Amino acid sequence: MPVHPIEDTVDLLVVGGGTAGLVGAHTAAALGARTVLVEHGRTGGDCLWTGCVPSKALLAAASAAASARRASSLGVDVGEVRVEFARVRAHVRAAITAVQPKDSPEALEKAGVSVLTGSAVFTGPDTARIGERSVRFSAALLATGADPAMPPIDGMETIEPLTSETLWDVEELPRRLVVLGGGPIGCELGQAFARLGSAVTVVDGSDRLLEPEDPDAAALVAAALQRDGAQLRLGSQGVRIEPGVLHLDDGTALPFDRLLVAVGRRPRTTGLGLDAAGVDLDDDGSVTLDAALRTTNRRIWAAGDVTGPPFFTHTAGMHGSVAASNAVLGLARRIDPVVPRVTFTSPEVASVGLSPAEAAGSGCTVRRVEHAAVDRAVAEGETEGFTSLVLDRRHRVVGAVVVGPRAGETLGELTLAVRQRLTAGDLAGTTHAYPTYDDAIVDAALDDVRARLANPLVRGALRAAVWVRGRLRGGQRSER
Ligand SMILES: Cc1cc2nc3c(=O)[nH]c(=O)nc-3n(C[C@H](O)[C@H](O)[C@H](O)COP(=O)(O)OP(=O)(O)OC[C@H]3O[C@@H](n4cnc5c(N)ncnc54)[C@H](O)[C@@H]3O)c2cc1C
Ligand SMILES: NC(=O)c1ccc[n+]([C@@H]2O[C@H](COP(=O)([O-])OP(=O)(O)OC[C@H]3O[C@@H](n4cnc5c(N)ncnc54)[C@H](O)[C@@H]3O)[C@@H](O)[C@H]2O)c1
């Protein structure tokens, strides 16, 4: 039973208790709206149970193994590295357990949100059914997330492929793991398992990993995966599966103990009664939205993975909040177009705004600093990486790529720079702590400032200013 009695008409009905629904419900309740959240599984969603939290916990264990293996290059011998997968799994579960209370029904109810367990089905433009109960709503927020996509490969039905949802139940480290898909999930989990000791092969139909990312960044990730022992089969499609073997279109047969499918995600929209509610879908299956996250039903807003890419927790949260406040206050706030993204491989790939490739031919300048020239990277022996700033004609930061350890931590400053339209001069003029990977940002920005100073006109004007200042000083001295 919900702690708060359900009113006849609720101000906001939230369908889905993942990040988008949780943040939307908290926002609406904080604004004083009578809010009901319906979840048919566990509150916390993909991020907590099968996505960000377990994957980053697994990557942390994998990174510890990799650090131990390279410790001797820094003069520290740790002996043979042994991975106990059961203890790695315990670490993953402990991380989930530690984060879970924030996303719990108790936390929601404490914030004033009524929580219902069950599947919500819309029965009309302003009504929904949850089991036996019928709810009328002034506004609703659709936040049902997305499922892993399954490619139509012959024989897939003869095996039990792993997905990001089922992977966490695997009790033994797979000896041979084939990962289908070299996007963020394939790269992060492929690297994690390779570092933990699986023989990993990553297969991707594209001729490179991490397709939307900067090609140089993707190449560094590919090299790192190979160093970790993973094989890459790029430009290859899986065409047939028989138990234990994936056949590729080039005739290669890849034996596996487990196959992990990571070829994208599909918005969860079936069985929700969206027809009855008058909520239309786009051709890719995501919910049709306006810029303020309102669906084709004027009472229903949507946020998170159900709205299509990008599939990130931070967009789910931000959009959940914007949608909920628009819904309960009658606003038309638009979503922020500046979205940072980080792939948590080693090295991390962090990007925001216009990429160097997108900027080509637009009059933008790319200032790039290799991390081999960054003192902190040299000190840590982590020089494989770079920082690129994309600057427009007025020297404003319109994009950035950082590849290196903890690149995601550096990205906050650059995201703010893009959002606030800061210039290279603003970055170069801000004191950054030394030695950090941020030195690369300062050096890239300084390159731009110095290039401007090297312009003959600017140089001439500066020389004249220095000359005049010198003469004035000389005059003052002779007067004394
Ligand atoms: C392996 C992996 C790693 C990831 N790592 C990152 C990362 O590092 N950083 C990042 O930003 N993103 C990451 N993501 C993506 C991120 O997890 C998702 O973008 C985010 O969790 C989406 O949140 P959501 O609220 O839209 O959907 P979900 O979290 O999927 O929540 C939807 C909820 O709705 C419920 N539901 C569905 N239908 C109904 C119904 N009819 N009635 C009631 N309830 C319903 C579901 O049970 C679910 O709880 C990762 C994803 C994966 C798979
Ligand atoms: N760090 C993060 O923020 C993070 C981490 C994991 C996941 N995610 C989110 O989850 C979403 C899903 O991730 P994903 O990696 O599954 O999807 P993705 O769409 O990003 O990448 C899928 C990859 O699979 C390849 N592919 C597609 N069909 C194939 C086939 N039949 N055979 C071989 N390769 C094929 C594609 O070329 C692509 O490279 C992403 O869009 C991402 O936004 C984010």
UniProtKB/TrEMBL annotation:
Coiled-coil region(s): none
> Which of this chain's residues are annotated to bind NAD(+)?
G181, G182, G183, P184, I185, G186, C187, E188, G264, D305
Query: Pfam families, alphabetically?
Result: Pyr_redox_2 (PF07992), Pyr_redox_dim (PF02852)
**Family matches, as InterPro entries:** FAD/NAD-bd_sf, FAD/NAD-binding_dom, FAD/NAD-linked_Rdtase_dimer_sf, Pyr_nuc-diS_OxRdtase, Pyr_nucl-diS_OxRdtase_dimer, Pyr_OxRdtase_I_AS
Q: Which UniProt keywords apply?
A: Disulfide bond, FAD, Flavoprotein, NAD, NADP, Nucleotide-binding, Oxidoreductase, Pyruvate, Redox-active center
Q: Which domain of life is it from?
A: Bacteria
Provide the binding site for FAD. K56
Q: Which ranges carry the Pyridine nucleotide-disulphide oxidoreductase dimerisation domain?
A: 339-444
Cofactor binding note:
Binds 1 FAD per subunit.
So which cofactors does this thing need? FAD
Every FAD/NAD(P)-binding domain range: 11-320
Q: Which Gene3D superfamilies did the record assign?
A: 3.30.390.30, FAD/NAD(P)-binding domain
Q: Which family does it belong to?
A: Belongs to the class-I pyridine nucleotide-disulfide oxidoreductase family.
Q: What's this protein's name?
A: Pyruvate/2-oxoglutarate dehydrogenase complex dihydrolipoamide dehydrogenase (E3) component
Q: Which organism is it from?
A: Blastococcus colisei
For this protein's source organism, the top of the classification is:
Bacteria, Bacillati, Actinomycetota, Actinomycetes, Geodermatophilales
